Structures are given as structure tokens and as C-alpha cells.
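Hi all, posting the design record for the shared folder.

TITLE: backbone redesign
STEP: 1 of 1
STRUCTURE INPUT:
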């Protein structure tokens, strides 16, 4: 005969009461130190939770596990609740361990281990269930995107508990300036998290990998990632490269027109001074390359390279100046005009020096003769006249005469 679940629960409850009465009659000296020990448990949704209750000192007193609804799960080694997910791991006088598999969010709560002494002693263990976030998805991208258009990419994930964290990366470099929104789901237990990346499309972003990464403690350090490769269309970028930086008459020059754009630009168009190339026999176009052979002065001018694609067109110019090799060689010889100028300056400086020296000598000779004449008036001979003349110069500076 099979007992109904309600009858079975009442039976185990009655057993618990009888055990309590027996415990009061037989409690000994060691029963006062008995106390059940438990630990809080955290488990990921869908995983298995192990609940363990231990007693260091036990004089054959029963242990019991109850769920948050105060329903008995196990009484010693006897299962009380019909739930195939709950199993007995170990049952003894010192330990009662059970497991709950395929844990759901509704299993979260406070579980109780009871030691049927008098009075009954209990210990609480809180079971925390982590909600695993769903794999994120990136929305808002339409391919292709034109350069300069505004892009708004949104990454969204649901079912996380607690709320997950979303981070954006562009080519493995994190983007910080983003919006973040957290909303509670209908079950009022989990969260839906979304984040928006807003930026202007640029040609440098073509081919860039945008990734949205979801981090959560339930993922065991292995984040969930969604990726999107950008495709940006833009007008051509044009540049001319010359094979010769100093072209001379008679030589050949090769001009290469490099054009980069998306879609790939059509074949380029070469022109000279706003018109067609004047000498097709010497000026040969092969794809993006313009080759001009046997250069001469008539080839001087402005050469334009133009590239276009469905997005637009762009061009650049190169000014060609053909040099005369003979004139260039003459410039490398000695500069006779410069040498003549230097010689003229040296001659002029020399003449000026001679003139100044002559005037200086003549002036000092006149002073000597004048002083000699002044001293002769009072002196018997020429030597005394000169000495008298030098002594009188101190008081007669204003009477000096100079001959130039």
C-alpha cells in the first residue's frame, strides 16, 4: 500500500516529535555542546547544489534538512519530499548531506538543518542561484555603410542574475563611451541588459571587427562574445608617385597613380593641362601607369590623375619640369663672377689701408717739425730746441700746429 505525500509528511513530523521527547529523557552531559554547522552555497542555474550539515558531537540525535517552504527534504536517511532532483549523499549521526540537481531560480532561498535536541537547534544555509545570460546579439548594422553616416549598434542579453556587464571592443581595443541600460525581466528575478555604441562611419573602420563582450560570474571567466565586421564604402583616395625626382631631356619618366576606395575604383583617367595627352606615341598609359619617353621641354605641364567609383570621384596633380642636362653641368663649374667679386673686394681693402697709413705718417711728421721750430727760439742747438719744445707742450696744447 502506497501512502499519500501528505500522510507521509505527517508521519515524519510525528517521528520528529517522538525523537524530541526521547531526546529530553536521554539528554546527557554532551548534548549541551551539540550544534549543527552549515555553509551558504552558490550554484549556476542548471547545476547541482550540495547541502551539508555536520555535528561535531552527537549522541544519536536525528538531523533533518528543510527547504525555504519549510518542507522536510530528508529526515536522517529517509526522503520526505517526492522530488527526483533531490538525492541523499551521506547520512550519519555526525553528517547529513543532500544534493539538488538541475537547480532552477525557484530553488533559491534559505534552507534549514535541524538537530532534534531539546530545544531543537537549527542552522541556516542560503542557496544562491545565478542566472546565466543568454548569448548576446548585435543589432542595428546594415551593410554596406557610407562614410560619414552615423552608426548605432546595440548589444543585448537576457536572463542574467545578477545583471551582466557589457563591454565594447574595436579590433581588441575597448571603447569606453557607450550607453548602458538594465531592465528587470517579467519573472522579477533576472535582468535584460543592453548597450549602444554610437559613432560616425570612417574609411579607417572598413574591415574593423566590432565585438560585444558579456561578463558574468556564472560564466566561469569565459565571456560570451558577439562580433560584427564593418563594411564602409568611401570615395577613392588618389596619389601620384614619380620614378624620377629630377627628370632631364631625353630620359623616361614613369608616373604611377595609386587609388584606394571601396568599391574598388574604375581605371584611372590621365590628362595634361586639362586636356588629353598630346603625344600618345611617347605618352603611353597602361592601367594606372603613365610612361613618357624621350622627355623634352614641351612635356612640361600639369598632369592629372582621376579615379572614381559608385560613391564618388577624386583626383590629384603632378607638375612636370624637364631640365636641360647641359645647363645643369654648367652650374657645377667654378663661378667666375663670384671669384672676380672677391678679388675686387680684396684690392679695395688694400688701397684703403695704404691711404690711411700714408695720412697717419704725414701727420706725425708735421708735428715733429713744428715742435722743433718752437724750441729753437730759446735753445743754443737743435737737441735743446727739441727738448724745450716737448716740455712746453704740456702748457701749450692749444698752440700746436699740424701739417697734413
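Okay, here is what came back for every position:
SEQUENCE:
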Amino acid at each position: 500500500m502506497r501512502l499519500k505525500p501528505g500522510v507521509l509528511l505527517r508521519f515524519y513530523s510525528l517521528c520528529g516529535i517522538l525523537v524530541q521527547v526521547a531526546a529530553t529523557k536521554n539528554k546527557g552531559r554532551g548534548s549541551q555542546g551539540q550544534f549543527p554547522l552549515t555553509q551558504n552555497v552558490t550554484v549556476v542555474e542548471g547545476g547541482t547544489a550540495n547541502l551539508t550539515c555536520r555535528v561535531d558531537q552527537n549522541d544519536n540525535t536525528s538531523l533533518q534538512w528543510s527547504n525555504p517552504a519549510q518542507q522536510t527534504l530528508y529526515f536522517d536517511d529517509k526522503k520526505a519530499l517526492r522530488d527526483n532532483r533531490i538525492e541523499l549523499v551521506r547520512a550519519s549521526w555526525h553528517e547529513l548531506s543532500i544534493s539538488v540537481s538541475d537547480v532552477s531560480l525557484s530553488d533559491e532561498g534559505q534552507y534549514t538543518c535541524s538537530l532534534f535536541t531539546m530545544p531543537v537547534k537549527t542552522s541556516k544555509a542560503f542557496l544562491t542561484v545565478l542566472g546565466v545570460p543568454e548569448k548576446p546579439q548585435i543589432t542595428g548594422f546594415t551593410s554596406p555603410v557610407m562614410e560619414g553616416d552615423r552608426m548605432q549598434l546595440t548589444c543585448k542579453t537576457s536572463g542574467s542574475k545578477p545583471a551582466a556587464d557589457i563591454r565594447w571592443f574595436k579590433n581588441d581595443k575597448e571603447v569606453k563611451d557607450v550607453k548602458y541600460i538594465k531592465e528587470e525581466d517579467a519573472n522579477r528575478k533576472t535582468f535584460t541588459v543592453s548597450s549602444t555604441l554610437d559613432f560616425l562611419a570612417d574609411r579607417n573602420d572598413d574591415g574593423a571587427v566590432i565585438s560585444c563582450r558579456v561578463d558574468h560570474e556564472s560564466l566561469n571567466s569565459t565571456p560570451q562574445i558577439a562580433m560584427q565586421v564593418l563594411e564602409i564604402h568611401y570615395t577613392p583616395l588618389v596619389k601620384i608617385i614619380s620614378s624620377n625626382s629630377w627628370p632631364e631631356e631625353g630620359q623616361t619618366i614613369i608616373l604611377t597613380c595609386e587609388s584606394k576606395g571601396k568599391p574598388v575604383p574604375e581605371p584611372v583617367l590621365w590628362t595634361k593641362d586639362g586636356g588629353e595627352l598630346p603625344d600618345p606615341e611617347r605618352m603611353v598609359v597602361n592601367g594606372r601607369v603613365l610612361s613618357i619617353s624621350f622627355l623634352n621641354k614641351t612635356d612640361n605641364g600639369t598632369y592629372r590623375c582621376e579615379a572614381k567609383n559608385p560613391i564618388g570621384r577624386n583626383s590629384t596633380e603632378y607638375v612636370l619640369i624637364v631640365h636641360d642636362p647641359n645647363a645643369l653641368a654648367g652650374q657645377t663649374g667654378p663661378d667666375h663672377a663670384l671669384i672676380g667679386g672677391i678679388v675686387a673686394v680684396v684690392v679695395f681693402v688694400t688701397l684703403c689701408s695704404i691711404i690711411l697709413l700714408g695720412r697717419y705718417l704725414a701727420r706725425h711728421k708735421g708735428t715733429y717739425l713744428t715742435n722743433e721750430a718752437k724750441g729753437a727760439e730759446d735753445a743754443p742747438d737743435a737737441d735743446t730746441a727739441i727738448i724745450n719744445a716737448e716740455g712746453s707742450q704740456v702748457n701749450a696744447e692749444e698752440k700746436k700746429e699740424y701739417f697734413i
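COMMENT: The chain is about 20% helix and 40% strand.
Let me know if anyone wants the other runs.
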